[in-house]
Write a structure and sequence with these properties.
By secondary structure, this protein is of the alpha+beta class. 42% of the residues lie in helices and 29% in strands. It is built from six helices and eight strands; from the N terminus they run ββαββααββαββαα. β3 and β4 form a beta hairpin. The chain is globular and about 45 Å long.
């Protein structure tokens, strides 16, 4: 289970320290790709394999399925953790998520989300301002996730 919120920085070469708690679950090598809401998604290899199989099972004749698969697969890259616990994030992924200096890594069950700190604060404040978590919880209940 990946969980928690961790603040870190990216160095000038695009290297990011992965917190030990997350590194233990992600492994020494994992996949990072474009994510939703303007962040990056990092998947342990086994989770990525499962996700990739689901993408491969989508109907090739469906335009939205092709776009969805393209979005996640085109930007995907394997990241290896170095001896200092860092990964090198490709420039294209850093640009996509607006990662400059300060970043926030968030464990979200089966994946890690990598956010620019400014975007994370913006999203977090918007969630708090909406104050609609009760409505969201009700919707989740309808999807089978009761609290």
């Amino acid at each position: 289970m990946l969980m928690g919120e961790f603040n870190h920085t990216i160095d000038v070469k695009g290297r990011l320290i992965v917190p030990a708690k997350l590194r233990d679950a992600l492994g020494d090598e994992f996949v990072v790709t474009k994510g939703l809401d303007g962040c990056l998604f990092a998947y342990p290899n086994e989770e990525w394999k499962n996700f990739e199989e689901k993408l491969g099972a989508l109907p090739l004749t469906n335009m939205n399925a092709r776009k969805f698969a393209r979005f996640f697969l085109a930007g995907a890259t394997t990241c290896e953790v170095d001896k200092q616990g860092r990964i090198l994030l490709p420039a294209v992924l850093r640009e996509f998520a607006g990662l400059d200096k300060e970043v926030v890594l968030v464990g979200v069950s089966r994946r890690v989300e990598i956010w620019s700190k400014d975007k994370w604060i913006e999203v977090s404040e918007a969630n708090e301002a909406d104050n609609n978590m009760e409505d969201i919880a009700e919707n989740m209940s309808q999807m089978g996730l009761g609290i």
